[in-house]
Amino acid sequence: MASGQTATSRIFAIRTTAGQERNVALLIERRCLAKKIPVKAIISPQDVSGYVFLETSGPNIVNIAIEDVKHVKGWVAGKVNFEDINKFIMPKPVVEIVDVNDKVEIVAGPFKGMAAKVTRVDKAKSEVTLELLEAPYTLPITVHAEQVKLVSRGEPPKPEAKAVAPESERERKTDIFEAFGKLEEE
Question: What does the pLDDT average to over 96-104?
């Protein structure tokens, strides 16, 4: 290869046994280091089940890297676009993830380690208002969204239902309004 040229790298998807993605990534890494296989990156996103991604220059290197590796079922023909896996690599802001009634753990600040329930989310300021679960009384606190970690999803907040008056009451109200209208006309 000439000194001004570089090999283009591509991303390939490796099928694995579900739940073994991290182990497969570690086994491939060890194999690549031991045999000096030119793999640039091994990606095992938590949100993707059954797949590990390899960044390398070609499919022949993928075959060498995954040959006889336990829990590898094969690889998907073709390349994967970086934009397709970028959403799994880039972490989402916590303020986008949490919602009202979710249970969170406070990971920084004076209340570190305490469990809380989200009562309000302010996405503009990137703040969440919490109600401490371990406090003997209701103690609402507002912290930066990066200071909490989602533990479990709560029930979504129920929209307030408007009380519907029975048909006869609606008619009576209408009659009252008509009566006031007649009085104003007189």
Answer: 88
Element (H, E) at 51: strand 51-56
Q: Is the pLDDT of residue 35 over 80?
A: yes
Residue 145: how many CB atoms within 10 A of its CB? 20
| Domain final residue pick, 65, 89, 113 | 89
* CA atoms of 132 and 112, how far apart (whole Å): 11
**Domain-located, residue 123:** yes
Confidence category of residue 2, pLDDT binned at 50, 70, 90: very low
Distance CA 71, CA 20 (A): 7
- CB 96 within 8 Å of CB 150: no
30 phi/psi in degrees, rounded to 5: -60, -45
- Rounded CA-CA distance 123/101 in Å is 16
For residue 123, count other CB atoms closer than 10 A to its CB.
Answer: 12
Can you tell me whether residue 154 is helix, strand or coil?
Answer: coil
Q: Which residues pair with 143 in a beta bridge?
A: 128
Q: Could you tell me the pLDDT band of residue 4, with boundaries at 50, 70 and 90? A: very low
CB 31 within 8 A of CB 65: yes
* Domain range enclosing 56: 10-89
